[in-house]
Design goal:
The structure holds 2 protein chains of 2 kinds.
Chain A: H1 17-23, H2 61-69, H3 71-76, H4 89-98, H5 108-112, H6 127-133, H7 140-149, H8 156-171, H9 173-178, H10 195-203, H11 207-210, H12 219-239, H13 245-257, H14 267-276, H15 280-394, H16 398-424
Chain B: E1 3-7, E2 11-18, E3 21-25, E4 33-34, E5 36-40, E6 43-46, H1 48-52, E7 60-62, E8 65-67, E9 78-80, E10 83-85, H2 87-104, E11 116-121, H3 127-139, E12 143-149, H4 150-161, H5 165-171, E13 176-182, E14 187-195, E15 198-207, H6 212-231, H7 241-257, E16 263-272, E17 277-284, H8 285-309, E18 317-323, H9 330-340, E19 345-346, H10 354-365, E20 370-371, E21 375-378, E22 384-388, E23 400-409, E24 416-424, E25 437-446, E26 457-465, E27 470-476, E28 482-487, E29 492-495, E30 527-528, H11 538-544, H12 560-568
Parallel strand pairs in B: 1-11, 11-12, 13-18, 18-19
Antiparallel strand pairs in B: 1-2, 2-3, 2-4, 5-6, 5-8, 7-8, 9-10, 13-14, 14-15, 15-29, 16-17, 20-29, 21-22, 21-24, 23-26, 23-30, 24-25, 26-27, 27-28
Helix pairs in contact in B: 2-3, 4-10, 6-7, 6-8, 8-9, 11-12
Chain lengths: 426, 603
């Protein structure tokens, strides 16, 4: 792993150190063991100390690229004057804060030999806030974390340095004011989920909160602070083991490296920067990561295409089915309506038929009753007439009997004729 | 299901329309149920059985039997067989019997519950009797959807039941039709006119003096009388009631038989118990006509009188529709043929049940009665105020139609306001002032005789109820008097079964001659709807406002007519004689009553 987080590159006016890191390869072989630290060394290769976010005054990208191209030469021109070696972490950190723009380098053995258990290294030392206030744009924390990364993971100096850097971050107004749980150490608060939040929080920081003059906090400083904050956060998360390198790359890509540049950079500059970048492993890893990501995405894309195709086919089939069902439904509905109409018509017909049958039945009953009662009436009256006629006959009143019989016969004849006529009309 | 119910004087029956045909629900002999009820202890016998036991014709109470109880409605209580009975209960017994018999008949399925009916009534049935009849129906579980006059129902039934109702209606459009309902108990008459969309009654009339039962009675009594004369039967040889009853039935049967034969023989063995003689009498058609002529003539006279009351000659009648059992009697038909012409006299084959059938059709068609003529109030100076307009729909079951009118008294000097209620004699939606009127009656109400004219207010409430009774109530505001009068003799109209637009010009009505105008004394109506001084009689105005008669121009000056009315009561200024005195030569006689300036000179 590239232990130099400042390989993120120079934070130019466009504020894109990630791009810078990607475009400035180191020509030396990246070897962690030879990461010699010179406590009072000049800025290291552009791809290293001097190119990390917050590594001093901003330089144009072209300068950075040129600086990167001259890195081997510059490394060899380090200042011979060497300061005394720091004995403990406090001194190391104080050295770093003496000039936040410069990277403090120590050999690994010296770094490992730093006294960790000094009282000054205990949690909550008073000197730490005083030092932190000198670095409003967070230049030092990435360097301290990069230094810690050169040690073995379980080395006490590494852990102490990480913890101290963690404390430095919690002191900074950016984290103090805008991030509820800046380092995720508070179990009662949800950890920060992404570096994007840190980036957003950095945008909201004002000169007053940083305790700097507004004239000292312009766009360049804003970009510097944002990048350093994100890089510090990302490195801290990686060093604490919360993130994998893949997560780190992803977070950095989304928060820093993918930010569009506003400065025109020539293809030659980019090419030179890429071949002169100090940490080839990192670049290889980065490229490998993106290749893997690309493969994953390609695979996902292919799967998505396949799925889309399958879904499209399924949609086509569903559409066809839907259409067929629609037509079938319409047909069934039409048939249902037709049947309903038929039912209505048949119900009406039945009702009409029932009414007609009732009417016919009533009329037939009435016809029968008319006929029956008329016959009863006629026969009844003839019976009375014939009875009187019989009485008259027996009494010797033959003319009366004849008349009554005649009347009765006439009436019966009329009735018979009427009944015959009724039969003829059937 | 609403049925037609003819609760007739002699017979009653129910009819109902099923499909396009009307069904009569008759008794076992195919005849309507006789409207006769007999009480034997707790037993109530109704119908033919009760009638067979009756030897008398006419209406009323005969021992324990009541015939035509409809005519007893309106009385508080009557005694039947020594028992006091309420006529409503007696009528309800008959209705209940008809209902139960109908619901037991073979045609019962067509009747439904038989709980609602259009009921026919005679034209001269008054308000209390109608209300009592409604109560009687209610007691048997039948509500009355509407009353309708019997002859009007007969005409509707004739038009509706014809093979071509539309054609028949068209042929009679704007024509006058006389409906003669000559049944066993009464002769009911209605003169109607067909107008676009409706049938309107012009005039109603009727009598119960020439009913068919009286014919039977006269024939029986005359046969007995002639036989007794011929065979020397004494008056003491009195036949038994059963023999008399059977001879009455013979009379009924033989009067019909004489329509086909020239002679029939009355043969009743042992009719005279004292002498043991058998009644045997041959009656010719000519004798029958001779015997029944007074009754037939009496009936025809009523018909002529009715036509005369509306200034109409028989020739103006386009159709004489004869309903009722008497239509079968040749002498009746003959007289009607003579009067109207054979082609105009129609005796339907269903004449015996035509009224009930008409009621059934009215029920089927949901027809509502309307007023045929406007009802008017005659006011001062001969002006008329419409109370109810022609075409006003009559209220249905349980409904009431009412109007309130505010009036003033123009002449309170006699302390009485006279409110004559009138209707135009002829049919007209907009009668003119000169059109003759028929006076229905006068409502009088007391007012303060000390009050000036046009001061005391009067309230006139006009109400028509579901019994088709017009009730006019007048109330005086100061005197606090309240008087009412009921009028039932109204003419109605009903929608036509088939409306027709083909119209023929109506025949010109016969003009009333001056001699035909109202005779006797009249009343001077003294009410007005507005405070108009010119409506006040001159003599009354002078008492309250003498300045109106001063010789000075002014807006409140008395009119010429008021001046005359005032001077009429003043003695002659010259000779001091009263108005019109023969000896007066000063100008009080009609020809000299005014001076040069057109003003009376008597002063």
């Amino acid at each position: 792993m590239n232990t130099d987080p400042n390989g993120a590159g120079t934070d130019g006016p466009a504020g894109d150190p990630a791009d810078e890191a990607a475009t400035v390869p180191r020509l030396e072989s990246p070897d962690a063991s030879e990461s010699t630290v010179d406590a009072d060394s000049a800025p290291a290769s552009p791809g290293q100390a001097e190119q990390v976010p917050g590594s001093g005054e901003r330089e144009p990208r072209k300068d950075a690229a040129r600086a990167g191209a001259k890195a081997p030469t510059t490394a060899r021109k380090q200042t011979p004057a060497r300061a005394s070696k720091p004995a403990n972490l406090r001194e190391l950190i104080e050295r770093a804060y003496q000039d936040p723009r410069r990277h403090v380098r120590l050999p690994k053995n010296e770094l490992s030999a730093l006294v960790v258990t000094s009282g000054a290294d205990m949690p909550g030392p008073q000197w730490l806030p005083d030092l932190a206030r000198k670095d409003p744009f967070l230049r030092v924390p990435p360097r301290l974390l990069a230094t810690a990364a050169t040690l073995d993971p379980n080395h006490p100096v590494r852990q102490a340095l990480i913890d101290l850097t963690h404390r430095i971050l919690t002191i900074h107004p950016l984290y103090r004011h805008y991030v509820a749980n800046p380092t995720g150490t508070d179990p009662d608060q949800p950890p920060i989920a992404s570096s994007a939040k840190v980036s957003d929080a950095a945008k909201k920081v004002t000169p007053e909160t940083l305790d700097v003059e507004p004239s000292d906090y312009r766009n360049d400083q804003r970009g510097l602070l944002r990048d350093n904050a994100v890089v510090s956060f990302a490195l801290l998360w990686v060093l604490q083991g919360h993130w994998t390198i893949a997560q780190f790359i992803s977070e950095m890509t989304s928060a820093v490296w993918s930010r569009p540049t506003t400065e025109a950079v020539s293809s030659a500059d980019i090419a030179v920067a890429l071949v002169t970048v100090g940490e080839r492993h990192a670049l290889n890893h980065l490229v490998g990561h993106f290749l893997v990501e690309l493969q994953k995405l390609t695979a996902q894309l292919n799967r998505a295409k396949d799925e889309t195709s399958a879904e499209r086919q399924r949609a086509d089939r569903s559409e066809a089915d839907n259409l067929a069902l629609r037509e079938a439904l319409a047909s069934e509905r039409s048939r249902s309506e037709s049947l309903a109409d038929q039912v209505t018509a048949l119900t009406s017909d039945i009702e009409t038929e029932r009414t007609n049958r009732f009417v016919d039945n009533s009329h037939m009953v009435d016809d029968y009753e008319i006929l029956r009662t008329q016959v009863i009436r006629r026969l009844g009256s003839q019976v009375a007439l014939l009875s009187d006629g019989l009485h008259a006959l027996r009494s010797g009143s033959t003319p009366v009997a004849e008349e009554f019989v005649d009347r009765a016969l006439t009436s019966i004849h009329q009735e018979v004729a009427r009944l015959k006529e009724l039969g003829g009309t059937r | 299901m609403i049925v037609g119910f003819d609760f007739g004087t002699t017979n009653s029956l129910v009819s109902v329309v099923v499909g396009d045909r009307v069904i009569d629900v008759l008794d076992e002999e195919g005849m309507p149920h006789p409207s006769v009820v007999r009480y034997e202890g707790e037993e109530v016998i109704v119908g033919r059985e009760a009638r067979h036991a009756l030897e008398e014709a006419g209406v009323g109470v005969y021992g324990n039997t009541v015939k035509s109880p409809k005519f007893l409605l309106g009385e508080e209580v009557i005694t039947v067989g020594g028992v006091e009975r309420n006529p409503i209960d007696i009528v309800a017994d008959v209705i209940r019997f008809v209902r139960s018999e109908s619901l037991r008949s073979a045609q019962r399925r067509a009747l439904g519950q038989l709980d609602r009916a259009v009921v026919t009534i005679p034209v001269n049935m008054n308000g209390p009797r109608r209300a009592a009849l409604r109560e009687a129906f209610a007691r048997t579980g039948i509500t009355i959807a509407q009353f309708v006059h019997e002859p009007l129902a007969a005409l509707y039934g004739h038009l509706r039941g014809s093979a071509d109702p539309k054609g028949l209606t068209r042929s009679l459009m704007k024509r006058d039709i006389l409906v003669v309902d000559w049944g066993g108990g009464t002769l009911d008459l209605t003169l109607c006119r067909l107008q676009p969309g409706r049938i309107l009654q012009l005039r109603n009339g009727g009598t119960d003096e020439v009913g068919g039962d009286r014919f039977d009675l006269v024939i029986r009594d005359e046969v007995v009388k002639r036989f007794s004369l011929k065979n020397g039967i004494t008056d003491s040889d009195h036949p038994s009631p059963e023999a008399r009853r059977r001879l009455l039935q013979d009379a009924e049967r033989n009067k019909i038989a004489l329509s086909e034969r020239t002679n029939v023989t009355f043969y009743r063995p042992g009719y005279f118990p004292e002498s043991g003689k058998t009644l045997e009498y041959s009656l010719s058609r000519q004798e029958l006509e001779e015997i029944t002529r007074p009754l037939v003539v009496g009936g025809i006279r009523h018909i002529e009188s009715l036509l005369d009351s509306v200034n109409m000659s028989p020739a103006q009648v386009s159709l004489c529709l004869v309903a009722g059992g008497m239509a079968a009697m040749p002498s009746v038909r003959g007289r009607l043929h003579e009067l109207f012409g054979p082609e105009k006299v129609v005796v339907p084959s269903n004449s015996a049940t035509l009224i009930s059938q008409g009621a059934a059709w009215i029920a089927k068609d949901s027809q509502r009665l309307v007023l045929a003529k406007p009802l008017e109030l005659e006011m001062a100076r001969g002006s008329r105020l419409p109370l109810l307009h022609a075409g006003t729909e009559m209220p249905g079951d349980g409904e009431v139609r009412n109007v309130r009118i505010h009036l003033y008294c123009t002449d309170p000097s006699d302390g009485v306001v006279k409110l004559p209620i009138e209707a135009p004699t002829a049919l007209s939606d907009h009668p003119q002032a000169s059109d003759p009127r028929t006076n229905l009656g006068v409502v009088t109400v007391q007012v303060d005789d000390k009050a000036p004219p046009l001061t005391e207010r009067l309230e006139l409430d006009v109400m028509v109820d579901d019994d088709l009774i017009l009730e006019v109530t007048a109330t005086s505001s100061q005197k606090k008097d309240r008087r009412s009068a009921q009028f039932h003799d109204l003419e109605f109209g009903i929608g036509l079964p088939e409306s027709s637009t083909a119209e023929k010009p109506p025949p010109k009505p016969k003009r009333r001659t001056p001699q035909q105008r109202a005779h006797g004394v009249g009343i001077r109506a003294n009410s007005a709807v507005e405070k108009d001084q010119s409506l006040v009689p001159g003599d009354v105005l002078y008492k309250h406002n003498p300045r109106a008669f001063a010789r000075m121009p002014g807006t409140d000056q008395a009119t010429q007519q008021q001046l005359l009315e005032h001077l009429y009561y003043q003695p002659c200024a010259v000779c001091k004689r009263p108005w019109g005195h023969e000896a007066c030569r000063c100008g009080s006689t009609p020809s000299r009553s005014t001076g040069k300036a057109g003003r009376p000179t008597r002063r």
